[in-house]
Amino acid sequence: MKYFVAILSCFLLPAQSGVPGSSAAEKVSIDGTVVNAITGEVLKKVHLTLRPLDQQKALPYGGSTDANGHFVMDDIDPGRYTLTASRNGFIAQSYSPDGNARRVATLTLATGQKIKDLIFKLTPQGVIIGRVIDEDGEPLADVSVQAMVFQYQRGIRQLLPAGGTPTNDLGEFRLHNLRPGKYIISASRNQRMIMARNERVVGSAQAAQLSDEGYITTYYPSAASAGGATQVEIAPGGQVSGINIALVRAHTVSIKGHVSLPTGIPEPSANVSLLPRDNVVILYQQYPPQAIDARGNFEIRGVASGSYWLRSNCALDGKPFVARLPVDVGTSDVEGIELTLQPPLELAGHVVMEGDAELKNPAIFISLRQKNSFSSPGTQVKNDLTFKLGNLERTAYDISVTGLPQDFYLKSVRTGPEDVTETGIDLSTGSPEDLTITINPNGGTIEGSAQSAKDEPAAGALVTLIPDASHRSLLWLFKTANTDQNGHFTIRGVRPGEYQIYAWESVEPGAYQDPEFLKTYEGQA
After folding, report:
1. How far apart are CA 196 and CA 180, in angstroms?
2. 470 and 404 in a common domain
C-alpha cells in the first residue's frame, strides 16, 4: 500500500539535529516503557540508543529499562533522532508506533519538549528448527545451514544471508534471531572436507571416482536451485520446526589450473577459491580457499555446474596480489586455467568544497564499489581534505561519497580533465590521474508530510526521492527519509535535478531502486 504525499515546501533549512550547548530550559526528555510486541509484557534489561540523524552534530544517548520495563532519557538536545532497542531473544529494531520492525518512525524533539508514556514495542525473535539428512535418511553433521531473504542490493533483487549455523552430530540446526518474513533455507556441505573423509575411508583411487558425484547446495525441502525452494514464513516471535532438508547428490567436476606472478614464476604461498557468480544468491562459500603446489598448480574437486569467479590471492611484501577469472562449469572437467597475480594499485585524490562554507573534522568517506561484485574498499578523508585508496584490484569501480554534512551534495568527480561522476573509473589498465571530488554546501531540501488513507498522520512511512530515468543507475542520488511521530519528513542535501517522490506504508528495502519495480507505480509519483 502506498501513501499519498503532500509536499509542503522546498527550501534550505539550517541544521536542526542534536546541536550541543543547549540551555537547561531547552533540553528534551523521553519517558517510556518497552514491552513485548506480542504479549504486551514489560521488558527489563533492554538497551536503548537515541541517535541524531545528523551524526556530525552530537553523540548518541543511551539508557536501559528497569525491572518494570521503564526508561528515562533526559538532558537531550533538541533535534531529529532515531530510537533503537535491543535485548537477548528479541530482534534489534527502531521505534515504530505500531511495533512494525520494518516501519521506522524518527522522533522530532522540539525545544523543551517532554515526551511521556512512549511505548516501544519490541518484537521477539523468530526461530527455525530442523535437520539435514542424506539420501538414506542418515543425519549429516557440520553442514552449513543458511536462512536467506530476498532483498534488493544496488537495484537487483537477490537472496542475502540472514543467519546461519552448522548442524550438530545429529544433523540438527537451530536458526534464531530472525525477523518476521519469508525465508529460503539452504544447506551446503564443505566439499574439501568430504573428499578428505573419502580418502581416509576408501583410499585415494576410489575417492577420485567419488568426486564425480557429490552433495550440492540444497534448498528446503530438497531443491537443487533457489527457484525450486519452498519458503518458510516466520510470524513475529514465531517458531517453525520440522524443516528437514535432504541433501541432493549431483554430477560434479574438477577445475585445474596454474597460478603465477606477472614474471611467470609460480608463487606457492597463493591460494585459490571459487565463488558463485550468480547475482541472485550470495551465500556460504561452498568451496573454501585451497593451496597450490610448488609449481603453481591447483585442483578444485567436487564442483557443481554453474557460473563462478575463480580467484587467487597472496601477500607479498605486505601487499595483496590478486587474480580473478570468470569460469562457467558444465558436465566436463575444466582444465588449462591460467591465473596471473597482479600487484595492487593506489589511487589518491582530494576534496574541493565550493562556496565559503567551512568543513571542520570531516567524516567524509570515499569508497570504490566494484561493478561486478560487492567489494567496496574505502577510506576516510583526512583533515586536509586529501585521501589515498590502496590495495585496489584492477577492475571497474563506481565511486561513492558518504558522510557528507546534511546540506552538502556531491557535485562532480574528475580524474584529470575527465568527468567520471556518472561513469565510474576503470582500473583494469592501471591507476588514472588523481581524483578531484567537488562537493557543494547548498543542497536542496524537501519538507512535507504523509497521511494514511484515513487522513491521519502516517508515522513510520518511508519517503523515497527517485532521480529521473536517465540517472537511476546512480544509486547515490536516491534519498530516503522516515516520517516522524507526526507524519512529517525532511530530506536534505539534494543534488539539483529532476526527481519523483513517493511514500510507502511498507516496501521491500531497496525495491525503489529497481526500474522494473517502479514501472508499476510510475504514474502515481
Report:
1. 39
2. no
